[in-house]
Amino acid sequence: MSRWTPHVTVASVVERAGRYLLVEEDKGGPFSLFNQPAGHLEPGERLTQAAERETREEAAWHITLTGYLGLYVYTAPDEVTFHSHAFVGIPLAHLGNALDSGIVAAHWLTLDEIEALERAHRLRSPLVLKRIRAAIAGRQFPLDVIHER
Fold it and tell me: Structure pTM?
């Protein structure tokens, strides 16, 4: 009997002057897709460390996390299940480093622009807009609700 293992991921909703930080990803399809800076938890890493690292690697931004949006469980069309821990953060500095492989660019987009991407089916998953709407509504928890080491 094989054991089911969900993929543990993190994502950061980062807002600046009414715009949200998204990364444009080349997934090999006819169009690029947009996502929050996000990725998999690495062995020995804390969730908060992973969220900050992914934002540095994918968007070249140094951020500080200010809140926890919660756990979002998503099963992709290929039946892979993700346990995505979402955070809210604020930008501190643009780092200028090269972006991760597969990342075309980082963009600061308005909610209207992100909703237009959703209508065009260019968001990586439905979680992108759900996380932003939760952040806008103020539905977040203090970071200390996460107990790690």
Answer: 0.94
Return the residue matching tokens 């501190």: 92
Q: Please report the DSSP string for 95-138 in residue order.
A: --PPPPTTEEEEEEE-HHHHHHHHHTT-BSSTHHHHHHHHHHTT
* Range scoring the smallest mean pLDDT among 1-5, 37-41, 68-72, 113-117: 1-5
CA 22 remoteness from chain centre: 8
Cα distances from 52 to residues 40, 72, 102, 126, in angstroms, run: 12, 18, 19, 22
Nearest 5°: phi and psi at 16? -145, 115
Confidence band (pLDDT; 50, 70, 90) for 4?
A: confident
| Integer Cα distance of 149 and 137 in angstroms | 30
As a whole number of angstroms, the longest Cα–Cα distance in the chain is: 51
CA–CA separation, 132 and 41 (whole Å):
21
